[in-house]
Amino acid sequence: MQLRSMFARNYRSLRSIRMDLSDVNLFIGENGVGKSNLYRSLQLVQAAVRGRLAHEISSEGGMFSAMWSGKRRSHESPRIRFDVELLDMERAATFRYWIEAGMRPPGAAGFALEPEIKAEELSFEGGRRPVTMMKREGAGISVRGETGRMEAYREQALPSETAVALLGDAGHYPEIGTFRRAVDAWRFFHGFRTDRGSPLRAPCLAVTSPMLDEDGANIAAVFATLTHIRGDTVELDRVIAAALGGARLVVPAPEETADFGLMLPEFPNRVFQPRELSDGQIRFLGLAAALMSYRLPPLIALNEPEASLHPDMLTPLADMIAQAAKNSQIWIVTHSEVLAQAVRERCGARPRRVIREDGSTWIDGMRLTGVIDDDDE
Questions:
Q1: By the number of CB atoms within 10 A of the CB, which of 83, 105, 127, 352 ranks highest?
Q2: Exposure pattern of 181-203 as b/e (b: 16+ CB <10 Å)?
Q3: Residue 11 vs residues 15, 27, 163, 368: alpha-carbon distances, Å
Q4: Where's the Endonuclease GajA/Old nuclease/RecF-like AAA domain (predicted)?
Q5: DSSP codes of every residue in 287-307
Q6: What is the distance between the alpha carbons of residues 368 and 375, in angstroms, rounded to a whole number?
Q7: Is the pTM of this model over 0.85?
Q8: What stretch(es) of the chain map to CATH 3.40.50.300?
């Protein structure tokens, strides 16, 4: 399923913004304009379907930190809202989900700074009109049952608990489960640690790994899966050689653990272990594992992937992004004009320039409907 549109309101610098989305979505802008808040809003939708929205908002300082701090109209309630629309291309059907969260009222159950879920809804449109599959107001949940009618769910939700996670776990509501699995499969790569203790530099258990973990901890197993199970690393070898001065990836047949190294052309008789590689080398290998794994997630989001990379690595990175875009929807936040131009040349994706307008995050040239003017810059 493809993410077709997103909406965010009252989250940090996102006063109210809606965007139509495409196969490759490329965002560029200066520091402090809110690019990462757009990225983070999708992460919070995923956190909602996983039942971790309260945990994620609390980890960034709680509701006081997460909410829009600018002026509000007198009739507006102080609530964060996220909406997403997913297109199920196989069935030509659309899932629409939205969630609103606000502050816990005085005396209510829960902790002071965690969010309280105020309302939530999931609808499905596979015919002439959308059908509500689940609706939540406060603690009460209504769900469409086997008879096709809306009925009260037997349990009430805790104030910080999301209904989509509660019902998705129940196993009785296939459309809710389908939506939840689709969003749960998104992957967000917010850079990789490159210090000495980075998971990228450590061996991992030798377990078949078709997809990279978000922290990169199974990178060696991802490379071993490509090398020894899929048996096809031609394109991976090409981009690594192009980015790293002719280097060659070496992946021994794993036993209890999986490992890898690099053989550099100036030292043909030695394999350099991950702990010996530079920050740029190990970060590029992490991106290669994310973008060229055996199985790609439906959505790959990269936040400033150019960090620590030598300029010579940006063109091979754009090549990997273009290759991944054949199977996955791509979301990129970047400062690099060079990377943005290279991705545009390969994917035809026009960069969306993120700006601040009246204190809130906006996309240059975007209409209020979320459509971005298509004229060339």
A1: 352
A2: ebbeebbbbbebbbeeebbbbbb
A3: 7, 18, 20, 17
A4: 1-44
A5: HHHHHSSSS--SEEEEESTTT
A6: 17
A7: yes
A8: 192-347
Domain 192-347 part of CATH 3.40.120.10: no
Asked if residues 134 and 49 have their Cβ atoms less than 8 Å apart, the reply is no
Residue 186, both tokens: 């998104």
Q: Which two tokens stand for residue 314?
A: 């940006």
Side-chain half-sphere CA neighbours of 340 within 13 A:
17
Instruction: Compute the distance between CA of residue 197 and CA of residue 279 in angstroms, rounded to an integer.
Output: 12
Distance of CA 108 to the CA centre of its chain: 33
Contact predicate 166/141, CB 8 Å: yes
- Opening angle at CA 244, ends 242 and 248, nearest 5: 85
CA atoms in the 13 A half-sphere facing the CB of 141: 24
CA-atom Rg of the chain in angstroms: 22
The rounded distance, in Å, linking the Cα atoms of 237 and 227 is 10
Residue type, 1: M
Tokens 């009430």 belong to residue? 156
* One pLDDT digit (tens) per residue for the chain, 377 residues: 999 999 999 999 999 999 999 999 999 999 989 999 999 999 999 999 999 999 999 999 999 899 997 877 766 778 999 999 999 988 889 999 999 999 887 666 567 678 999 999 999 998 788 999 999 999 999 999 888 899 999 889 998 999 999 998 767 899 999 999 999 999 999 889 999 999 999 999 999 999 999 999 999 999 999 999 999 999 999 999 999 999 999 999 999 999 999 999 999 999 999 999 999 999 999 999 999 999 999 999 999 999 999 999 999 999 999 999 999 999 999 999 999 999 999 999 999 999 999 889 999 988 877 666 654 44
24-28 sheet: strands from edge to edge: 187-189, 299-303, 329-334, 24-28, 352-357, 360-363
